[in-house]
Amino acid sequence: MSDEILVNITPQETRVAVLAAGQVQELVVEREANRGLVGNIYVGRVARVLPGLQSAFVEIGLERAAFLHVADLWEQRRTTALNGRESRKASSINGGENGKPEPAKAIEKMLAEGQPVTVQVLKDPLGTKGARLSTQLSVAGRLLVYLPQDPHIGISQRIEDEAGRAALREKLKQLIPADEQGGFILRTLAEGASDDELRADIEYLRKLWRDIQQRSGGVNAGIQPPKLVYQGLSLAQRVLRDLVTDRTAAVQVDSRENHQKLVAFAQAYMPALAGKLQHYTGERPLFELYNVEQEIEKALARRVDLKSGGTLVIDQTEAMTTVDVNTGGFVGQRNFADTVFKTNLEAAQAIARQLRLRNLGGIIVVDFIDMDTEHHRAAVLEELRRALAQDRTRTTMSDFTALGLVEMTRKRTRESLAHVLCEACQTCGGRGEVKTARTVCYEVLRELLREARAFKAREFRVLASQSVCDLFHEEESGALAMLSDFIGKPVSLQVETDYMQEQYDIVLL
In 10 A of CB 102, how many CB atoms? Predict the structure, then answer.
């Protein structure tokens, strides 16, 4: 069945849903206030060089200075690559003797405070960390990635056939203009592209790079760093470039103005896709019509219900994401082993889909229900591999470990859906739990004793939530009275309706 892509655009945010067989497979949200910076090119100014860390901080106009490590300097990368080639050449000529490599330069030899430098964002700012930068620039097209500084031809790792890789490399060499000083990387979509399509992408990228060069000409071009000279495509434009395939039947856009802009963009750079763009004019909201809003709510929940009655419990932490598979209400019809096997098979498909929906990255550990039969374990692993093969993001997985777990990694391409749409609970601080009223009562008693020994006061007043004060008036009234007698001071209670259960203050009177 053909895929369909839905694009919901408002002035504040753009949301994209990819449907296959009528079911939502991927969700992407981009907000104007937090639009990603990866791929943006700036003329920045070196704010500080740190020889001890072999890194520098560069001002590019953001709230925090961005971070540039010596390994991300193009001059350093070029030296490393040349040394590798010279070493291999000398080894082949001298029977294994190494050539004399060019010594790597220290960052303080290449950068100075106040120096303008053209940089590209590798990673968005995250938490207290600034953006990660590189001086090796690249510009992505639909089929190719252009490397203006590096005369190199690369092939996407997802194209695994060695004969096909070699043929593509030779094909691209024939299409590159003779005056080209840079290089290209063929993206996965280029595997079945025609010569005309590749040639059009090459021309588009070369023209785009000439425009960037004109805008980043430095002070002589009237640019005072820091200055943004190239911004990556919007989410709607990236959808056309990256997500639309031959299987895509239609791309529905619910904004007339943006539909016209996308049609103009497609006609200029991807004429074959212009006919797939449709303007949705229905009365019902586009995402509501296709039940995407419900899928978003489900993708934020910790528990995922399987059709059989089994469940997945997904927990996202700083270190990794864990997925626990349970039979839940599924009792099966034959025996326990068959019930477990069927639940695990269904879970394998659901896990792959949830990884895409939630955009979970990094280390992922799956705890399938224990299976005694080796045949069943192999079948579950094969089903999981098959389901993961549909993922556009690179994913690797292992066999079952000694503890019966399946470990995998999924490349982080952007923030997870939960990190984009949610924030840590102000009541529990992101723990998912709050202290009981009784626990808080005992904390209050210990704090009263500590303050009575540290300060001389006529009276102590406890400001706390309704539930804590109610417990002190009822079951813990004796404990409060006993403490009051022990410290020799009266203790009063005052309800603060805006206090959360864990909040309290002690006022000295």
Answer: 12
How many percent of the chain have pLDDT more than 90? 55
Sequential DSSP letters for 207-246: HHHHHHHHHT--GGGT--SSEEEE-PPPHHHHIIIII--T
Identity of the amino acid at 63:
E
Secondary structure class of 57 (helix, strand, coil): strand
Helices (H), 225-369: 235-238, 256-269, 286-289, 292-299, 336-358
Helix axis angle for 466-473 and 437-454, nearest 10°, is 80
437-508, CATH topology level? Hypothetical Protein Ychn; Chain: A, (3.40.1260)
- 407: amino acid identity, one letter: E
**What's the pTM?**
0.73
Characterize 355-392 residue by residue with b for buried, 16 or more Cβ atoms within 10 angstroms of its Cβ, and e for exposed: bbbbbbbbebbbebbebeeeebbebbbebbeebbeebe
- The topology under which CATH files domain 300-421 is Aminopeptidase (3.40.630)
What is the three-state SS of 461-483? EEEECHHHHHHHHCCCHHHHHHH
The pair of structure tokens assigned to 106 is: 């220290």
- In the chain, % helix, strand, coil (3-state, to 5) comes to 40, 25, 35
* CA 233/CA 211 separation, integer angstroms: 15
- Tell me: the pLDDT tens digits for 4-14? 999 999 989 99
According to CATH, the topology of domain 3-35+233-292 is Nucleotidyltransferase; domain 5 (3.30.420)
The whole-number pLDDT of residue 143 equals: 86
| Residues forming beta bridges with residue 366, ordered by sequence position | 323, 406
CB 153 within 8 A of CB 146: no
